[in-house]
């Protein structure tokens, strides 16, 4: 064995303890850490892009990283990161995620690990939490992009089956043109269309309801009626990124009965709202969708990367993703045969952090996270409405606040971007730029389990200070 490897093997307990101390230091300083570190801190030191011959050993590598790069880490795990829809990591999910690397299981039905059984149990618990029926199967994937990819891939296979074509076997050209209809789809679905060979040009925008990001069912029906023979996938949104608008899934199901399309529901973070009785009606009907995306590293506060794809069409899923090899178990139609149900052959034990979180906090704990974030988002919205220099572009429907700047003197986009740059330098709160109905806008997404009223007060103070400062 190489001497440095031998040294690290001997010192393994010390290395793990040192790692724990660094993690404790990071977490203890999370509230003081800037949500957006200075650009200079996000750069590599000269020479750190080159591989050395001998290496320095694990502890020295840890110390080098901490000394030179810890300041370049964002406080995205903390309570005032409202940028992307990024949850933190609850203690239980963080503990589970650490152990995933320690255990280093390939999470397949390989009959040499409990991993597949834990994943199946996690899916069953999640269905119970979200009110999804037994007809759905599911599996863990890396994020909403891959969950949408899976749903659209199974949908593509279904469209082929309706026309006597096995797309996974014959290729997408055998299916021909596909229409993908949506009002405000997430960009990850467009990415998935590119990867699947359906093509981004297949995405046809459908009009929204007035003053909303939700799809207009009447406009959708007009398109469906005009193209009755075209294979069609409808992408429904259960929580758009700007305003958390929910498509009327019950109306879409009625259209599906008449026009026979595949219905995929992108509920990356909005789906978790189903655990709250007050919010569950927003998702009425999703129990009958063909496929669903839910993201665990958003509102379930599990570390990256973790999402779930659900479908009612397990046999079609296996047709798409089966992996036939002499040294692997042959495909069999069962919901835990993940080798044949997901894009990956090698899969980390992603289910464990989510299983730990569900076990640790239960239905009531997850519901508390969701309902508290919703309440705090409304407080942030109310505070902005009462503050000079801001106005809401849409009501706060759930956990995202979409707003803009008042008293714009020149270029609205430039003023917004300059304001966000000041906000980043202030380091208290992170928001992101967007557009809403063609207007430069700002969005704040609240999904972190640690966010409290005191964080909203700090956020509002920072927003007000940065609104009219010059630098």
UniProtKB/TrEMBL annotation:
<protein>
    <submittedName>
        <fullName>Aspartate aminotransferase family protein</fullName>
    </submittedName>
</protein>
<dbReference type="InterPro" id="IPR015424">
    <property type="entry name" value="PyrdxlP-dep_Trfase"/>
</dbReference>
<keyword id="KW-0808">Transferase</keyword>
<comment type="similarity">
    <text>Belongs to the group II decarboxylase family.</text>
</comment>
<keyword id="KW-0456">Lyase</keyword>
<dbReference type="GO" id="GO:0008483">
    <property type="term" value="F:transaminase activity"/>
</dbReference>
<keyword id="KW-0210">Decarboxylase</keyword>
<dbReference type="InterPro" id="IPR010977">
    <property type="entry name" value="Aromatic_deC"/>
</dbReference>
<dbReference type="InterPro" id="IPR002129">
    <property type="entry name" value="PyrdxlP-dep_de-COase"/>
</dbReference>
<dbReference type="InterPro" id="IPR015421">
    <property type="entry name" value="PyrdxlP-dep_Trfase_major"/>
</dbReference>
<keyword id="KW-0663">Pyridoxal phosphate</keyword>
<keyword id="KW-0032">Aminotransferase</keyword>
<dbReference type="Pfam" id="PF00282">
    <property type="entry name" value="Pyridoxal_deC"/>
</dbReference>
<dbReference type="InterPro" id="IPR015422">
    <property type="entry name" value="PyrdxlP-dep_Trfase_small"/>
</dbReference>
């Amino acid at each position: 064995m190489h001497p440095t490897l031998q040294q690290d093997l001997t010192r393994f307990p010390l290395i793990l303890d040192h790692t724990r101390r660094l993690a404790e230091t990071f977490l203890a300083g999370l509230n003081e850490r800037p949500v957006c570190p200075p650009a200079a801190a996000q750069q590599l030191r000269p020479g750190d892009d080159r591989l050395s011959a001998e290496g320095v050993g694990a502890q020295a590598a840890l110390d080098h990283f901490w000394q030179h790069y810890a300041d370049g880490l964002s406080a995205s795990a903390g309570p005032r990161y409202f940028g992307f829809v990024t949850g933190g990591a609850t203690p239980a999910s963080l503990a589970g995620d650490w152990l995933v690397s320690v255990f280093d299981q390939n999470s397949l039905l390989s009959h040499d690990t409990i991993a597949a059984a834990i994943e199946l149990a996690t899916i069953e618990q999640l269905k119970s939490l979200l009110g999804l029926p037994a007809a759905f199967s599911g599996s863990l994937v890396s994020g909403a992009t891959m969950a949408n990819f899976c749903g659209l891939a199974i949908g593509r296979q279904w469209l082929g089956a309706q026309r006597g074509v096995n797309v996974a076997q014959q290729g997408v050209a055998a299916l021909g043109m596909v229409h993908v209809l949506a009002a405000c789809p997430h960009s990850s679905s467009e990415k998935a269309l590119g990867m699947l060979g359906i093509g981004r040009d297949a995405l046809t925008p459908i009009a929204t309801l007035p003053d909303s990001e939700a799809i207009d069912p009447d406009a959708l029906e007009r398109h469906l009626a005009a193209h009755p023979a075209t294979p069609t996938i409808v992408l429904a949104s259960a929580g758009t990124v700007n305003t958390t608008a929910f498509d009327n899934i019950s109306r879409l199901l009625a259209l599906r009965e008449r026009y026979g399309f595949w219905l995929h529901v992108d509920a990356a973070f909005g789906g978790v709202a189903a655990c709250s009785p007050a919010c569950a009606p927003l998702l009425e009907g999703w129990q009958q969708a063909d496929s669903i995306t839910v993201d665990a590293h958003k509102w379930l506060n599990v570390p990256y990367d973790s999402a779930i794809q659900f479908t009612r069409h397990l046999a079609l899923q296996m047709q798409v993703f089966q992996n036939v090899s002499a040294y692997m178990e042959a495909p069999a139609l069962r919901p835990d045969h993940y080798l044949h149900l997901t894009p990956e052959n090698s899969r980390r034990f992603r289910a464990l952090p989510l299983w730990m979180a569900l076990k640790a906090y239960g239905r009531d704990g997850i519901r508390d996270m969701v309902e508290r974030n919703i309440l705090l988002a409304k407080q942030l919205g109310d505070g902005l409405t009462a503050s000079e220099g801001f106005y809401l572009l849409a009501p706060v429907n759930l956990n995202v606040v979409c707003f803009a700047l008042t008293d714009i003197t020149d270029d609205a986009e430039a003023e917004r971007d300059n304001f966000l740059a000041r906000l980043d330098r202030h380091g208290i709160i992170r928001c992101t730029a967007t557009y809403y109905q063609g207007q430069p806008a700002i969005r704040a997404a609240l999904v972190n389990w640690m966010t409290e009223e005191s964080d909203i007060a700090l956020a509002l103070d920072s927003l007000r200070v940065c609104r009219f400062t010059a630098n």
